[in-house]
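User: tokens in, sequence out, please.
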């Protein structure tokens, strides 16, 4: 950590006593725990333009969610330089749902976690969050972003796939609150057994089918786990066509 960043962080959370990189790291950012007299905080840093854009959006989402009853880390501050961006938030003790599922001691415990995951997503899709309301059509916005990423060579999806997605858009559904990257890496299992959303750059009013498709993508092929998920998520079941569109199509650009 350079002296400028250290000084700017300390302006927000006080003198730093210790900083340590976390064992679980994503592919878009460097993540560290920072200790001060005020407590423990999480520092998330990005350096590539695309990921800096996502981090800036995540900072905006967290800031707007202060005071809302959405289980996310508490926003502390955002620092931006010419070549890097840095987000400060509360540090929450826990493990990712991916790690919790991997370490589950029985199949019953694993199903219980998956069922809780389904309920957690259902709660989000039923939640009203005025600070994130939007009059725009989320899917149309995502297709515009997808085109920009594809043209810049920043996506796995091709322009041919994108054209097919534009032509074969599924029938619209009522937009709800969504996470926007709803996979088990982006849910924290807290020490008290509760769940918390992390990596919330995509949290907005959008198409709930996208969340649902990403939530079940790793469960497919395990019928008992799919059923456990839908014992929690009782709102709707995506069709095969919808799963293909969102998971095998749109997700290729993000």
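Assistant: Sequence out:
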């Amino acid at each position: 950590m350079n002296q400028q960043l250290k000084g700017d962080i300390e302006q927000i959370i006080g003198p730093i006593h210790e900083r340590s990189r976390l064992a679980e790291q994503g592919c878009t950012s460097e993540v560290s725990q920072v200790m001060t007299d005020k407590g423990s905080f999480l520092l998330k840093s990005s350096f590539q333009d695309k990921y800096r854009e996502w981090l800036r959006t995540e900072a905006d989402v967290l800031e707007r969610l202060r005071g809302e009853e959405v289980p996310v880390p508490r926003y502390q501050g955002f620092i931006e330089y010419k070549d890097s961006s840095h987000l400060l938030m509360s540090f929450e003790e826990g493990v990712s749902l991916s790690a919790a599922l991997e370490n589950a001691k029985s199949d019953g415990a694993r199903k219980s976690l998956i069922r809780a995951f389904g309920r957690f997503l259902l709660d989000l899709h039923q939640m009203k969050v005025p600070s994130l309301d939007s009059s725009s059509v989320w899917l149309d916005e995502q297709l515009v972003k997808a085109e920009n990423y594809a043209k810049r060579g920043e996506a796995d999806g091709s322009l041919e796939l994108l054209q097919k997605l534009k032509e074969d858009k599924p029938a619209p559904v009522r937009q709800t609150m969504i996470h926007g990257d709803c996979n088990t890496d982006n849910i924290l299992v807290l020490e008290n057994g509760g769940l918390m959303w992390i990596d919330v750059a995509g949290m907005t009013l959008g198409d709930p089918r996208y969340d649902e498709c990403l939530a079940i993508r790793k469960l497919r092929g395990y019928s008992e786990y799919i059923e456990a998920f839908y014992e929690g998520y009782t709102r709707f079941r995506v069709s095969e066509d919808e799963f293909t569109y969102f998971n095998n199509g749109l997700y290729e650009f993000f």
